[in-house]
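User: I'm preparing a small set of examples for a lab meeting where we compare how different chains pack in three dimensions. I only have the primary sequence for this one, and I'd like the structure in token form so I can line it up with the others. Please keep the answer compact; I'll paste it straight into my notes.
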Amino acid sequence: MNKILAFSITILLVGLQKMSAQNYLDYYETINKAEIANLDKEFKKSDSLYQVAFGLIEKPFKEDFLLASINSDKLNDNKKTLEYLKKGINNGLTLKRIKNSLTEFKKSKEWKEVKTEYNSLRENHLKTLNLTLREEIKNMLTKDQASRHPIFGSAKKSKKIDNNNYKRLLEIIDENGGKWPGFSTIGETLPKGKYNVTGNIALMILHFDKEQIEKLKPYMLQAVMDGEMYPYHFARAIDYKSISNCQPFGTYLSGGFISPICDCEKANLERKKFGFESIEDYYRKRKSEYKCKK
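Assistant: Understood. Below is the structure token output for the 294-residue chain.
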């Protein structure tokens, strides 16, 4: 009887996990549509899509709340902007990030309400996190960057720090029940937005070697499916080690040199599996260009 009960519980847990993953895939897809509608200046449509997305999961991402508030600011809907910002702050959105992103709303009485309640909302958010681990990962990132200083850093120092960070990250995953230390554990540390890995754990992953990234790949992918990591951060880590030839997912922007996407058709199919928008939509959002390898 106990075996039957245990089996039933296992089946139920697997089913719930699949349901959760699908919810996040639907969430990512809907958020992408909302961002595109905003680019098309269809602000009402964009807002409707954001509301649908936020209803799909229990804890939407702070950066998406910020983008939704920027969109509702275009509609001059201060009450809705206030609602989005409060929820965003409760999920880690900082006042500095808000100040640099909004214009008209900062002239409203609702903006005063945001500033009045900010410290309390911020404190509530921090209480949900493992602040000791958050600080440790911050220190790991500091060492990562210090080892790459043009004067005081060196390739030898970087290699040593990267290996130490990789080993410690594996230990952290083990200590976290085999799970990636994601947003629910250390928060969304993204001072420059979800498309920029600066100040985020994803930054140091870029400096691991291919074998190390392959080892971490299943943990990162599961984190995406569980809403613990942005799809972009997962894909960028893999592209980073392939960029000398071509990018499997196509996450790097054009510069003096445009690294081609290995197979655009295949890349779009792979991107869809973890909620990433199409290459065309992605580069349009990023105001950049791309090319496909012939």
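A couple of notes for your slides: The radius of gyration is 20 Å. Residues 2-126 form one domain.

User: Perfect, thanks.
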